[in-house]
């Protein structure tokens, strides 16, 4: 929706493209895209960070190539070509992680290959990169990817702290800490995700209410001043 | 969507008249496939050596965990016809079992390590076990991969009583050298009476059983092929 609205207004600057996904339209907490890896691999902060970086790379490289080829790709075959492009970079990532660390590869398991089905990647290629020049498309994709990484680490960090008493593998609470095992089990992903969403919606409502109150006050002030003038 | 029908009608016919020619579609798909193919092949070739080294190092690390004296580790295949050959590149022939011969610093055969796998609670549990011929027993295990419940299934890594089962787990062959003399069996916690039994962890029975089953299945096939030819592996 806002895509078509923003295209009517002045085109966003490269910096705006970059920051869009970081927070304002965060892929996980605002657009709620790519839930499969978000819930499945965020057992530790390290896994979350690696998954986020892998997705960011796939997203940025795919969006760059899609944007570069956007005038050459007829709309009839666009989904097929986007999926081929995304699958290519997922394969590259898969090989790269095998070369970097086998432990990491085992820990992330099938979820690396499943980046190909992450709706965030195809969604951004289709909704943004296909109608934006390469630099802007890539910047936007990197921003979205970093926003995705940030949210994954926020979920994974909480799960690791509560479920294993550690953060990035560094023990925090000493030996007597009794870990909440449920946090590293699948339900923990839903609990932490829900917790963050709840927190953000409370904050949003607070600032909304403040803004409303401010505007009502301003209107009151205007009214009274108007009344004074009238008198 | 909200546009009235009168305007959408001409647009549709317009789209049909300006449909992309077949050749353009084919060209687009071919170019994209060619570019993507090049990227994939290039990255495969670039990462191949590193990935192979990583795999070798990982299996060597797993072997050293179960046979701590190992200095040199060599992979072999026990073929279905009973032959022992050094493991080469690529997929092993069907029916072949991969194992590692571990040599100590003086170059003497220290022991054999092999992998067993069986279904656990969540997924396949893959364990590496070390075998020494002087006691004809398993002298240590390590987990290669598992997805068992943290805090429950992963006790097989830490539970001292459970790991003590594998200080000398009896896997001697029968007189005909065709199978294990006694099947490796997982028994209920506290009821172990024989050297070939594994005392399960109470509350972690399914994962304990998977470990026992994986070892038993692998040893039943591998050891009858391997033991008669162990002399051939004496020197690295």
Automatic annotation (TrEMBL), chain A:
Single GO BP term: electron transport chain
The annotated topology with respect to the bilayer is: Multi-pass membrane protein
- Uppermost EC category: translocase
Question: Record keywords: Protein transport included?
Answer: no
Mind telling me which residue stretches traverse the membrane in this protein?
51-68, 80-102, 108-125, 177-200
> InterPro entries in the record, alphabetically?
NqrDE/RnfAE, RnfE
User: Which key words tag this protein in UniProt?
Assistant: Cell inner membrane, Cell membrane, Electron transport, Membrane, Translocase, Transmembrane, Transmembrane helix, Transport
Q: Which GO terms describe its cellular component?
A: endomembrane system; plasma membrane
One Pfam family this chain carries?
Rnf-Nqr
**EC number of the protein:** 7.-.-.-
> Any idea where this protein resides?
Cell inner membrane; Endomembrane system
Keyword Transmembrane assigned to the entry: answer is yes
Please describe what this protein does: Part of a membrane-bound complex that couples electron transfer with translocation of ions across the membrane.
Q: Name the protein family.
A: Belongs to the NqrDE/RnfAE family.
Quaternary state and partners of this protein? The complex is composed of six subunits: RnfA, RnfB, RnfC, RnfD, RnfE and RnfG.
Protein name, per record:
Ion-translocating oxidoreductase complex subunit E
């Amino acid at each position: 929706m806002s895509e078509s609205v923003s295209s009517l207004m002045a085109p966003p600057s490269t910096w705006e493209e970059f920051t869009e996904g970081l927070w304002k339209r965060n892929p996980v907490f605002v657009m709620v895209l790519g839930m499969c890896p978000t819930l499945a691999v965020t057992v530790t902060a390290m896994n979350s960070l690696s998954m986020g970086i892998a997705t960011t790379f796939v997203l940025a490289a795919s969006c760059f190539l899609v944007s570069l080829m956007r005038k050459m790709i007829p709309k009839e075959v666009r989904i097929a070509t986007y999926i081929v492009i995304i699958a290519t970079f997922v394969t590259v990532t898969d090989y790269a992680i095998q070369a970097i660390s086998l432990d990491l590869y085992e820990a992330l398991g099938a979820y690396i290959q499943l980046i190909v089905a992450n709706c965030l990647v195809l969604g951004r290629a289709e909704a943004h990169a296909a109608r934006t020049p390469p630099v802007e498309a890539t910047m936007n994709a990197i921003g979205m990817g970093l926003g995705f990484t940030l949210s994954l680490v926020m979920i994974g960090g909480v799960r690791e702290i509560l479920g294993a008493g550690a953060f990035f593998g560094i023990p925090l609470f000493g030996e007597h800490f009794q870990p909440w095992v449920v946090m590293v089990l699948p339900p923990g992903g839903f609990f932490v995700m829900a917790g963050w969403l709840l927190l953000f919606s409370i904050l949003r409502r607070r600032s909304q209410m403040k803004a409303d109150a401010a505007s009502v006050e301003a209107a009151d002030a205007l009214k009274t001043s108007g009344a004074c003038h009238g008198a | 969507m909200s546009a009235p029908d009168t305007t959408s009608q001409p647009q549709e016919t317009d789209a049909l008249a300006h449909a992309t020619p077949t050749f353009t579609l084919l060209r687009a798909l071919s170019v994209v496939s060619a570019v993507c193919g090049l990227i994939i092949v290039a990255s495969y070739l670039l990462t191949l050596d590193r990935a192979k080294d990583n795999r070798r190092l990982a299996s060597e690390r797993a072997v050293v965990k179960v046979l701590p004296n190992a200095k040199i580790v060599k992979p072999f295949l026990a073929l279905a016809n009973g032959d022992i050959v050094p493991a080469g590149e690529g997929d092993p022939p069907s029916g072949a079992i991969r194992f590692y011969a571990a040599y100590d610093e003086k170059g003497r055969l220290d022991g054999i390590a092999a992998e067993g796998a069986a279904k656990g609670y969540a997924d396949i549990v893959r364990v590496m076990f070390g075998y020494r011929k002087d006691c004809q027993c398993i002298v240590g295990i390590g987990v290669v991969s598992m997805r068992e419940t943290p805090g429950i299934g992963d006790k097989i890594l830490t539970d001292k009583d459970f790991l003590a089962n594998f200080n000398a787990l009896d896997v001697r062959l029968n007189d005909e050298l065709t199978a294990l003399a006694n099947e490796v069996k997982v028994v209920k916690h506290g009821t172990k009476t024989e050297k070939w039994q594994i005392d399960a962890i109470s509350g972690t029975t399914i994962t304990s059983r998977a470990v026992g089953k994986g070892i038993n299945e692998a040893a039943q096939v591998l050891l009858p092929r391997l033991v008669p030819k162990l002399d051939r592996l004496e020197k690295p």
